[in-house]
Amino acid sequence: MRNWRWVFTMLLYVGVVLKIGALELDRAQQTERISGSAGDVLEDDPVGRLKVFVYELPSKYNKKILQKDPRCLTHMFAAEIYMHRFLLSSPVRTLNPEEADWFYTPVYTTCDLTPNGLPLPFKSPRMMRSAIQLISSNWPYWNRTEGADHFFIVPHDFGACFHYLEEKAIERGILHMLQRATLVQTFGQRNHVCLKDGSITVPPYAPPQKMQSHLIPPNTPRSIFVYFRGLFYDVGNDPEGGYYARGARAAVWENFKDNPLFDISTEHPTTYYEDMQRAIFCLCPLGWAPWSPRLVEAVIFGCIPVIIADDIVLPFADAIPWEDIGVFVAEKDVPNLDTILTSINPKVILRKQRLLANPSMKQAMLFPQPAQPGDAFHQILNGLARKLPHDRSVYLKRGEKILNWTRGPVGDLKPW
Ligand SMILES: *[C@@H]1O[C@H](CO)[C@@H](O)[C@H](O)[C@H]1NC(C)=O
Ligand SMILES: *[C@@H]1O[C@H](CO)[C@@H](O)[C@H](O)[C@H]1NC(C)=O
């Protein structure tokens, strides 16, 4: 009896999938404009709204580091390098620091990779301190505000907390010298010590050309209901389980490994990008940090992101209507994921797909070379422009000091 009910339910599910597939064919490339302020903000042009001064640093803070390991150009933290290149030739750049609204320090703190290509954040605090020391002694602008009109790109797992394990990151907190600066970071979680008010949350870097080269015809039916490739357990770093992804990925595997609606596995096939374009829902669960490149991939490939990461702060959340394009599932509700997703009305699914088909949404997720209007570089500038003018209170009185140069772990104080 139970088996029969299962088969019946399955047929119903498959029916829904096919129906959506068919409806999709009808829509033939329809897209929907984002209504209201979100869409308008997404298309803002930052040029003329802010001026950025780029500090010139010795190349050991940026170019030399990259020369040592060109893999830094393709990993998910590469935005720090591309943002530097972008700003150098951007019309918002000013060579006159006296007229600058924002100051940018080009220091590549994520480009220290293990042989396997994993970025290590252990040298970042010393490097950052060293760079700040340098700009504060060679130019008068840092001391004027102690960094309140400076922004830094810190795309690490937990931003300027500079550790990839959450517990350690929380223990460290945001590097003291960056407490007054604006942080542009991939990490975003509400009420977390590693995300301070006024930070700008950005997408992780995903290679635009590579993704472009895997595009399949947009009217290809989406015959996969739920798709996921990635780790469920991280035995190396979390041998007893439960810490990695706060158990959410393990719950996905344990509940749905045998469910035919779920195409999930640890193996990354060569058709990974194509498969996302054949899927209706793409799981975007937290890993060690709440975000992963899957968020970007899902948007680019029009697969509805199923965001499983409680309290996540999503990239450019003031410009991208994440609630409309994605599905949010609480970590504790993962065991009901099948019911949650199969009970979404096909009309709602189609609307999300139409919104996802909007090119401006995809553009905002990417750091293309060369830059293009509306891309992630421009969204970052929009975010900085929206924070202007600076409040008068950011300017310190002559001789006033708020930050403490010697605060923080002793190890961070060693010269870099
Ligand atoms: C800024 O303040 C630091 C620390 O007090 C000091 O060492 C430095 O000389 C000051 N910079 C300038 C340009 O006056
Ligand atoms: C700065 O921080 C150090 C280390 O925490 C502390 O010993 C020192 O008293 C602080 N200085 C001031 C002026 O608060």
From TrEMBL:
UniProt subcellular location: Golgi apparatus membrane
GO BP terms, alphabetized: glucuronoxylan biosynthetic process; plant-type secondary cell wall biogenesis
Membrane association type: Single-pass type II membrane protein
Keyword Glycoprotein on entry: no
GO cellular component: Golgi membrane
Signal peptide bounds: 1-22
Keywords, sorted A to Z: Glycosyltransferase, Golgi apparatus, Signal, Signal-anchor, Transferase, Transmembrane
Keyword check for Plastid: no
Exostosin GT47 domain: residues covered: 49-344
UniProt protein name: Exostosin GT47 domain-containing protein
The species this protein was found in: Escallonia herrerae
